[in-house]
Amino acid sequence: MDEEKKIQGRKNIALCIAAIAILCIILFPVFWIVVTSLKTEQEIFQVPPTILPKTWNVKSYAAQVENGDFNMFRSFGNSFLISLGAMAISVVLAVPASYGIAKYRFKGRKVMLLGFLVTQMLPVAVLLTPMFILFKGMHVYNTAAAAIIADATIGIPFSILILKNYFASIPKDLEEAAYIDGCNRFTAFVRVLIPIAKPGVMVCAIFSFLYAWGDLAYGMTFILDQQKRPITAGIFNFMGQYGTKWSYLTAFAVVTIIPVALIFIFMQKYIISGMTSGAVKG
After folding, report:
1. Residues 138-153, buried b or exposed e (16+ Cβ, 10 A)?
2. pLDDT at 282
3. Is 77 in contact with 142 (CB distance < 8 Å)?
4. Where are the alpha helices (DSSP H) in the chain?
């Protein structure tokens, strides 16, 4: 028994070392981006490269908040507005839609689910032209509404496919008990079913927000004015015809990924529980 415990302990140590090694490999690009953003342009191209900057350069961060063609705070606000809008539309439309698909049997249900799945497989380039024509006709082109609607078209199918399993896993007896207590179908849905499916709703909201935050194609295509564009479009401000300002570009990348990192750090409980609790056959 003691030998088995010792072998088990050695195995755990080996697995921990392997996990740490894999984590270091995965996080090394992030570390290199941060280090590069703090180097001067000359030191970035130095051979052999330096692990840590010899001269700490913070001008690349300071330049992004100064007056100019690109303003970090304005673009940050644009991305936040677009991401919140896309997240709100995705959740508001996906929650009742997934409930209806999970609880009711009707003709075309499987075809509808297949359609939602197919939309996740389509490349963005295929959707740009029809969306461009649609937004032109709706007179929302070159506005934040165009990017919000475009990003929501990805968040809605994903949210429906995730939430459908949540509502399908909720026993019918709970809904019937709500009816006995005086709730109608709508109040039972709002007061009973949605709170139970809260982890799934949180996951859908988080992923819809993150997708809209990281989107580049829709923001670049449907918004022409630099002042209205999201923060991801700012990367092209540091890529000129005769060269790239790598210190500025990497500093911009560091600032851009901060909200994403914070969301995963503080929302990981909801993400993990949300992705596993609804893993049932619908």
Report:
1. eebbebbbbbbbbbbb
2. 44
3. no
4. 2-37, 41-44, 59-62, 72-103, 109-121, 124-138, 144-169, 172-180, 185-188, 194-196, 198-214, 217-222, 246-277
End-to-end Cα distance, the chain: 44
**For the chain, which residues score pLDDT lower than 50?**
1, 279-282
The dihedral through the CA atoms of 23, 24, 25, 29 has a sign that is positive
For 145-194, the pLDDT digits (tens) are 999 999 998 889 888 888 888 888 888 888 888 888 888 888 888 888 88
**Residue 96 to residue 61: CA distance in whole angstroms:** 44
| Tokens (6 digits) for 202 | 């949180």
Half-sphere exposure of 96 toward its Cβ, with a 13 Å CA cutoff? 8
Q: Which residue has the tokens 């415990």?
A: 5
Of 101, 110, 109, the residue nearest 160 (C-alpha): 101
Cα-to-chain-centroid distance, residue 192: 28
Closest to 206 measured CA to CA, from 274, 128, 280? 274
Q: At what angle do helices 109-121 and 72-103 cross, to 10 degrees?
A: 160
String of DSSP letters for 145-184: HHHHHHHHHHHHHHHHHHHHHHHHHS-HHHHHHHHHTT--
Q: Tell which residue, 196, 201, 229, has the closest CA to residue 215.
A: 229
Compute the Cα dihedral for 227, 123, 239, 63 and give only its sign.
positive
